[in-house]
From TrEMBL, chain B:
<protein>
    <submittedName>
        <fullName>LUD domain-containing protein</fullName>
    </submittedName>
</protein>
<dbReference type="InterPro" id="IPR003741">
    <property type="entry name" value="LUD_dom"/>
</dbReference>
<feature type="domain" description="LUD">
    <location>
        <begin position="105"/>
        <end position="207"/>
    </location>
</feature>
<dbReference type="InterPro" id="IPR024185">
    <property type="entry name" value="FTHF_cligase-like_sf"/>
</dbReference>
<dbReference type="Pfam" id="PF02589">
    <property type="entry name" value="LUD_dom"/>
</dbReference>
<dbReference type="InterPro" id="IPR037171">
    <property type="entry name" value="NagB/RpiA_transferase-like"/>
</dbReference>
Length: 500, 209
């Protein structure tokens, strides 16, 4: 239950807009400390994640070939990665043959430059946008704003996030951190044309957004979208959505720009039959999402008459170079892993300091940014380097993933990369303690003496939990109690027992 | 801007280096490549109707002779857009003003049109989906987007059981719109609200016999 006092209480989350949408805020543990203090957020997340995961479980159980679909999805993705150069050039040929223009962008800056150039050339000052993780990742809206172009997000949640000045906190429902009262307030103060006396009823809020965006759809000259899939053999691009804002953007303007990560390419049209079953059921927990649009280049007399496809790298080839980590590129952005993750459910998306939160974000973001590479982010106290540690390794994400990405294995692997970048470096506290432990455990004599020392401390503390230790022990006791120490070592107990 | 060909060559080079000696992967498809139910059968039509109603779409089942009557009942609005290729007899009993897309209606005119009447290319029973491909009787995509009510006539032989059945019948290079119920959002506290930007009202006429 929230109290609403009618004052402008909505502050952007995070409070300052990040320079890099993939890397902001403090390390994961610090950021999590802040978000964990927000009881309202935790309650919202608990309800939301439970609702979606129950729906997902119901509709995936309905298909008796669900596991076979997952296997096929995983295999298609792995096979597409292995043939990526061929598939991308084939896609380029098919799109070009159908009247589209293909661009290649090595990084965020280059992609933003390409898109801004196209919009400028078209003479547009305003563009409508379909929800897209790729354009979030490169900070396209901010780049367009710098060029004097107003980018309007048209997905309801994405519009809420944009008007609030927030970063998204979930891949599928980016405004999940906002409740209806906050949304009412954001609309009333920031939308410009919100109806008088707008209530916080979800239906009323949705209708206010419909009216607000309708005029903008009708006058839009240029639209920008992402892509869920693109078919190399035909040049077909697909976008799945629910609200119809996608159809508006993909149909009404005369020019369409689609920004797509290179990993989204699929070999054949037949592959659609796998992903159009896996994605909606895993994502919103529906048998099918309300609308899916597919287009191939330009169709005379139907939809945009100019089409540009921007193929984006921005760290994806880095991830591809890691044989174990590259499976993060198989991700179809369904967000099932977020909804089953006990860590995400408690901390929310903002603690991850990236537009990609949750388990998949914890393995994708570090790889896009080259964690542990020379000059790359590293270490458990770095905003990006700490992400692979934001997990209990319970494996729920692996079970939920429609393309069977082994997220726990990738997390462990990336922990290693984060803590042990190649090249010479000073030993960390963990390194030192592990070396000491190795010495003690490899000698019976040393272990006996260590046992006696521990038992002595155990008798001195009288079987009580130790809540505070001086440094370096404080690194442990700051976040958890030290275990109750035994008053006798196992060896000593055994010796007494055999004497009896 | 740097030469575009530089970006292309460099990205393809990076990918090749990253892949190194990676082996190709065989794709095995052990999922159901065809649905268990026969296209156009009574069971498949029942399933489609049930699944569409689950999305809160209106479903009316009828035989071919009653289509004009049913369509007229469902289109009790001032105006209806009608693309080329909709059978003329279906319009016989309409009371609504018929707007042809010839010459092409402007976006403003379409926005001002209450409803649209179309055929479809294929329908998927298992997922409650109707697919349009811009063929005869379906029109260009804007036509089925701006009017608030969409009445679509589905013939029994167009109804298949599963998603793979539908993909087998489709030419994906045509502009495709897959419609599964009216537009919807769950963005505010995950409360489902039907009807946001697309047609808020989807009415399916299922013709059997």
């Amino acid at each position: 239950m929230s109290t609403f006092l009618g004052m402008p209480t909505v502050r952007p989350q995070p409070s300052r807009p990040p320079r890099d949408p993939l890397r902001w805020g403090a390390s994961f543990p610090h950021a999590a400390h802040e978000t964990l203090a927000d009881g309202q957020l935790r309650a919202n997340l608990r309800t939301a994640t439970r609702t979606i995961r129950d729906k997902r479980r119901r509709v995936t159980a309905e298909l008796d070939d669900w596991e076979q679909l997952r296997d096929a999805g995983a295999a298609i993705k792995a096979s597409a990665m292995a043939r990526l150069p061929d598939l991308l050039t084939q896609l380029e040929e098919s799109v070009t043959a159908r009247g589209g223009v293909v661009h290649w962008a090595r990084d965020a800056a280059e992609a933003n430059e390409v898109v801004t150039g196209i919009v400028r050339e078209a003479g547009a000052r305003e563009v409508v946008k379909v929800k897209s993780m790729a354009t979030q990742e490169i900070g396209l809206n901010e780049a367009l704003a710098e060029a004097g172009i107003d980018a309007i997000e048209t997905d309801l949640a994405e519009r809420i996030v944009q008007l609030a000045g927030d970063q998204p906190s979930h891949i599928l429902v980016p405004a999940i951190h906002r409740n209806r009262e906050e949304i009412r307030e954001i609309f009333t103060h920031r939308m410009g044309d919100a109806p008088e006396g707008l209530s916080s009823e979800p239906r009323e809020l949705a209708m206010a957004a419909r009216a607000h965006l309708r005029a903008r759809f009708l006058r839009a000259e240029v639209a920008i979208s992402g892509a869920n899939m693109a078919i190399a053999e035909t040049g077909t691009v697909a976008v799945v959505e629910s609200e119809g804002n996608g159809r508006m953007c993909l149909t009404l303007p005369r020019l369409l720009v689609t920004v797509m990560g290179i990993e989204k390419v699929l070999p054949t049209a037949r592959d659609l039959e796998v992903f159009l079953q896996l994605l909606p059921r895993s994502s919103t927990g529906e048998r099918m999402n309300p609308y899916t649009s597919m287009w191939t280049g330009v169709t005379p007399g139907d939809g945009p008459q100019e089409f540009h496809l921007v193929l984006l790298d921005n760290g994806r080839t880095r991830a591809l170079a890691d044989e174990l980590g590259r499976q993060a590129l198989h991700c179809i952005r369904c967000s099932a892993c977020l909804n089953v993750c006990p860590v995400y459910e408690h901390t929310g998306g903002h603690a991850y300091g990236s537009v990609y939160p949750g388990p998949i974000g914890a393995i994708l973001t570090p790889q896009l940014l080259g964690v542990g590479e020379p000059g790359g982010p590293a270490g458990a106290h770095d905003p990006t380097g700490s992400l692979p540690f934001a997990s209990t390794l319970c494996g729920a994400c692996f079970d939920a993933c429609p393309v069977k990405i082994d997220i726990p294995a990738a997390l462990v692997h990336l922990r290693e990369r984060s803590l042990h970048p190649p090249g010479p470096h000073a030993p960390s506290a963990t390194d030192v303690s592990m070396r000491v432990a190795a010495r003690v455990l490899s000698s019976g004599r040393a272990l006996r003496w260590a046992g006696r020392a521990v038992a002595l401390v155990g008798r001195l503390t009288g079987g009580r939990a130790i809540r505070w230790l001086p440094w370096p022990g404080s690194l442990w006791t700051r976040v958890r109690d030290a275990p109750v120490l035994p008053v006798r070592s196992l060896a000593a107990w055994w010796a007494r027992r055999s004497l009896r | 801007m740097t030469a575009p060909s530089t970006a292309r060559a460099e990205m393809l080079g990076r990918i090749r280096r990253a892949l190194g000696q990676s082996r190709s992967v065989e794709v095995e498809r052990h999922y159901h490549r065809t649905g268990a139910l026969v296209a156009g059968s009574g069971e498949v039509l029942d399933l489609l109707a049930e699944r569409l109603e689950d999305y809160r779409a209106t479903v009316v089942r009828t035989d071919a002779s009653a289509v004009p009557r049913v369509v007229a009942d469902l289109l009790d609005v001032p105006s209806v857009a009608v693309p080329d290729g909709v059978p003329a007899p279906w319009l016989a009993e309409l009371t609504a003003e018929v707007r042809r897309d010839e010459p092409a209606l402007t976006h403003a005119e379409l926005d001002d049109t209450a409803a649209v009447l179309t055929t479809c290319r294929v329908a998927i029973a298992e997922t409650g989906t109707v697919v349009l491909d811009g063929g005869p009787g379906q029109g260009r995509r804007a036509l089925t987007l701006l009017p608030d009510r969409h009445v679509v006539v589905v013939e029994a032989d167009q109804v298949v059981h599963s998603v793979p059945d539908a993909i087998a019948r489709l030419d994906v290079t045509r502009p495709l719109t897959w419609i599964s119920g009216p537009s919807a959002t769950s963005d505010v506290e995950l409360v489902r609200v039907e009807g946001v930007h697309g047609p808020r009202d989807l009415r399916v006429v299922l013709v059997d016999g």
